[in-house]
């Protein structure tokens, strides 16, 4: 595998992406357990979105290669 894929699905954070004060207040009211649960859900959602993006970018690739690309993306480790 020579690349993580086309970067068209990547979006870089800009200076305009500041946290919403209302959302930050919601996070502060959450318990630690709720924040951890939310973090895990967000991580799983991000993985699902990345997988879908990779499938769209590489429609002919096998499921195992797509999963290898997802693992590489989540861990930063190339095999």
The percent range for helix content is: 55-70%
Low-confidence stretches: none
Class from secondary-structure proportions? mainly alpha
Count of DSSP H/I helices: 3
Write down how many β-strands occur, each being a DSSP E stretch of 2 or more residues: 0
Query: How can the largest sheet be summarized?
Result: none
Q: How much beta, percentage-wise?
A: under 5%
Q: What order do the SSEs take from the amino end to the carboxyl end, as H and E?
A: HHH
Rounded radius of gyration (Å): 16 Å
The mean pLDDT is 87
User: Cα distance, first to last residue?
Assistant: 8 Å
Shape: elongated
At a glance:
The chain is an all-alpha fold and 79 residues long. Helices cover 61% and strands 0% of the residues.
Characterize the structure shown.
This protein is 61% helix and 0% strand. It contains three helices and no strands.
Blueprint (SSEs and pairs):
Layout: H1 21-29, H2 32-57, H3 63-75
Which key features would you list for this structure?
about 60% helix; single chain; about 80 residues; mainly alpha; elongated
């Amino acid at each position: 595998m020579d690349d993580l894929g086309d970067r068209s699905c990547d979006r870089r954070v800009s200076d305009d992406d500041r946290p919403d004060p209302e959302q930050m207040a919601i996070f502060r009211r959450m318990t630690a357990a709720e924040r951890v649960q939310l973090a895990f859900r967000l991580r799983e959602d991000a993985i699902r979105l990345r997988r879908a993006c990779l499938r769209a970018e590489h429609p002919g690739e096998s499921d195992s290669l797509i999963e290898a690309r997802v693992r590489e993306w989540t861990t930063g480790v190339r095999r």
